[in-house]
Amino acid sequence: MNFFLETLIGGLLAGVLYSMVAIGFVLIYKASGVFNFAQGSLLLFAALTFVSLTERGFSFWVAFLLTLATMAVVAVLIERFLLRPLVARSPITLFMATLGLSYIIEGVAQALWGADVHGLDLGIDDVPFPIGPISVSRFDLIAAATAGLLVVGLALFAGRSRLGLSLRAVADDPLAALSLGVRLPKIWRWVWTLAGLVGLIAGLFWGSRSGVQFSLSLVVLKAMPVLVIGGFDSIAGALVGGLIVGASEKLAEVYIGEIVGGGIENWFPYALAIASLMVRPAGLFGERAIERV
Amino acid sequence: MSTPSASASAAPQGAHPPLLELQGIRLAFKAVRAVEDVSFKVRRHEICAVIGPNGAGKSSILNIVSGVYRPDAGSVAFDGERRSHMLPRQTAQQGIARTFQNIAVFKGMSVLENLLTGTTLRFESSWLEQLLWLGRAKGAERREREHAERVLEFLELQPYRDAPVGRLAYGLQKRVELGRALAAAPQLLLLDEPMAGMNASEKQSMSEAILDVNRQLGTTIVLIEHDMRVVMDISDHVVVLDHGRVVGDGTPDEVRQNPDVLRAYLGSRRQAAQTQSQSAASDITDPPDASAILAASAPAASAASAAPAPSPASIAAST
């Protein structure tokens, strides 16, 4: 029983890292209807910028703020040269544009910071942390707490601030928001900057776990089943989806993997996502599209 | 909010420039000519109804005034400034607010939050001030909330203040949308079918709300409506469109007696009868053909009625 609990909790906490990646997607999808394939590249770019700055002697917080400023500049450039010219185009056009964008960002990242693998030490000792009869990873606990703070912070921002209100208005009905005088470009710049912040935080945890390297951008593929299960337009969905994916892949690996000879962890989330598509196409928390017929 | 001065209202008509003037507006979507050549004026503080059969170009006109569409030719003058086209943010800044044909409230937000989004432009403080909750941000936020609460009260929406709008009844959602537009304290309010899909009592209370806005706040209103009884009751001025052209422009009484208007409606009656079976099967919120309603508001003219064949005069007389 303790072993089961330990696997479950370990999986849930690992899932939080998936959630963090997925939240970046949800923000952009909600506010601009774009499925942003470049979120993984943004995450990589942020982590690489951060680690390169710390290697040049900047302290954690200075490097963090400088990276965040860089992500804001990236957001402004994306809005000006990608989103604005392509406004009101079909979702597939925008998706293809972000696919191209992801390679451009990676190219720029390589030109700026080189292609080396960087180690990233956040100063969190990854020692087992005992909770009652079981022990969990301290690193995972801190990651989970950070993700929790991030979600609460985003919720407060969306619910309490003026900008958050405009953001929700745009997500709900862009045309109506426009008629009220909301500036779409401004909202887009903010949302992409926020997605950059989320990418930076996720990139720090992923990078310190597996090293900051170009394969980091592939975490976008890990976020896919999370989004399908949780729903593309819900931050709560991204959180819960991540937990489900994390927990189920670990449990499947341990309990089913034994029978079929392992290697389940890599594909189980995708099988789960396909099953979820059949039962709940819009995801657990997604808004079901209602069309008049 | 603009207040009419006593001398201005005493001045003869024409000395007072119209709040809104459309001149020679044309708009085509590829081969479909939605608006052919439309010119009309809207005076300050009046309620102007734009009516006409389906496809006459009414919504296109509203969308041109609010900056959603860009006309191919012609110009729009608002509050003395003439432009070849409007832009959405610019119209909002100038004091034009609108509602949409298909309800466009923010369903995930509470009623109060919807109204607060209407005050977007009046809340001009920098993001840094907002972040630090300093200076203008604090005072302005409080004033905006007070203003939103007043609109809430004005439209009798307080009982639903914190309810998510998506869960409210249809008529209430329409009222929230009106409130959101009002929260911007507009000079000109554009209402695209404010009563579509409403039952009789909802229509009644919406009519009263519109009249209250016009009389108590002095807001100029341009509305599109299919229900002729409502139109004739509340409007000061009626513009009739047909096939993208103005076929009638005057007071409700003048329009009722205008033979061109009657021809436009009765002419499309035959087509309406043909499509009747189709439209009966379509969505119930779809407004019935305007000619059918004009006929309904003048029972003697109804094709189904046993009364003698309608003449234009009998329609005018019966309403």
**Count of helical segments of chain B?**
14
Amount of helix of chain B = 40-55%
Strand content of chain A: under 5%
Distance between the termini of chain A: 52 Å
Task: Determine and state the CATH class of the largest domain in chain B.
Answer: Alpha Beta
Mean pLDDT of chain B: 78
Poorly predicted sequence stretches spanning 5 or more consecutive residues of chain A: none
- Which radius of gyration of chain A do the C-alpha atoms yield? 19 Å
Shape of chain B: globular
Biggest sheet descriptor of chain A: 2 strands, antiparallel
Tell how many strands the DSSP assignment of chain B holds.
10
Please state how the strands of the largest beta sheet of chain A are arranged side by side: 1-2
The Rg value of chain B, from CA coordinates, equals: 21 Å
Largest sheet: spatial strand order of chain B: 6-7-8-3-9-10
CATH topology call of the largest domain in chain B:
Rossmann fold
Beta-strand percentage range of chain B: 15-25%
Structural class of chain B: alpha/beta
Instruction: Outline the low-pLDDT stretches of chain B.
Output: 1-14, 270-293, 295-319
Q: Please give the oligomerization state of what you see.
A: heterodimer
How would you describe the overall organization of this protein?
The complex is a heterodimer of chains A (293) and B (319). Chain A has a domain at 20-214. Helix content of chain A is 72%, strand content 3%. Chain A contains 11 helices and 2 strands. Chain A has a two-stranded antiparallel sheet. The radius of gyration of chain A is 19 Å and the shape is globular. Chain B folds into 2 domains: 16-95 and 187-302 and 310-319, Rossmann fold, CATH 3.40.50; 108-185, no CATH class. In chain B, strands 6-7-8-3-9-10 form a 6-stranded mixed beta sheet, with helices on both faces. Chain B has a 4-stranded antiparallel beta sheet with strand order 2-1-4-5, covered by helices on one side. In chain B, a hairpin with a 2-residue loop joins strand 1 and strand 2. In chain B, helix 4 crosses helix 6 and helix 4 runs parallel beside helix 7. The radius of gyration of chain B is 21 Å and the shape is globular. The model of chain B is unreliable at 1-14, 270-293 and 295-319 (pLDDT under 50). At the A-B interface, helix 6 and helix 7 of A face helix 3 and helix 4 of B.
